[in-house]
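Hi support team,

I've been running sequence recovery on a batch of backbones for a student project. Most finish fine, but this one hangs at about 90% for roughly twenty minutes before it completes. I'm not sure whether the input is malformed or the queue is just slow. I've pasted the structure tokens below so you can try to reproduce it. Let me know if you need the job ID as well.

Thanks,
M.K.
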């Protein structure tokens, strides 16, 4: 990206941020959670599954396993039986079990607050780590989910970049650090309202 192109994209990014702030004053995570470890569980369950389905499933999981320690000690098969409606039950249950074990044994049930430590947790990728850093710890974060990637390309903040890590790097160059996390939440809200509108138009 040329210096001139980057400056133009910075101006565009600020305009997009302001417009989305007016449209969606509340920028918040669309997953229900109370504690940081619950957000980790929800994000893992949300892979190839709707947030709405995840939010229907997690209360049942926490009713049976209400703490990090309880999930760490649970038989993965018991976890799988509850999270199966979210799809990929076995691998998600295995990751959740392994992740909670590390949280319990290494971190005393506290979710770490650095990218490096989060990425070392089983089943945690950059998207999940960024969500934790931004939502829980208020650190600069860019959560490159499908809405963020599609809208960033559509608006022209990135040019034909589909790989999440590259989109994150490009957006970090042009989006003020304190705005990144909220911008990504607003992309989700906007992406969903677009989907809803197109659904209505197709009927």
């Amino acid at each position: 990206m040329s210096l001139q192109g980057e400056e133009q994209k910075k101006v565009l990014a600020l305009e997009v941020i302001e417009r989305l702030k007016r449209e969606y004053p509340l920028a918040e995570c669309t997953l229900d959670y109370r504690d940081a470890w619950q957000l980790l569980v929800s994000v893992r369950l949300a892979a190839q599954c709707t947030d709405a389905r995840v939010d229907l499933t997690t209360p049942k999981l926490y009713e049976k396993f209400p703490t990090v320690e309880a999930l760490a000690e649970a038989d993965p098969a018991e976890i799988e039986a509850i999270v199966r409606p979210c799809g990929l039950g076995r691998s998600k249950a295995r990751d959740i079990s392994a992740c909670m074990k590390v949280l319990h044994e290494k971190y005393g049930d506290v979710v770490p607050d650095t990218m490096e430590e989060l990425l070392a947790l089983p089943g945690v990728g950059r998207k999940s780590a960024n969500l934790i850093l931004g939502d829980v710890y208020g650190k600069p974060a860019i959560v490159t989910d499908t809405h963020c990637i599609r809208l960033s390309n559509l608006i022209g903040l990135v040019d034909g970049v589909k790989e999440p890590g590259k989109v994150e790097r490009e957006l970090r160059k042009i989006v003020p650090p304190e705005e990144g996390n909220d911008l990504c939440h607003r992309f989700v809200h906007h992406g969903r309202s677009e989907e809803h509108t197109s659904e209505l138009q197709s009927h």
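--
Follow-up from support: It reproduced on our side and the slowdown came from queue contention, not your input. Residues 36-136 form a domain with the Endonuclease III; domain 1 fold (CATH 1.10.340.30). No action needed from you.
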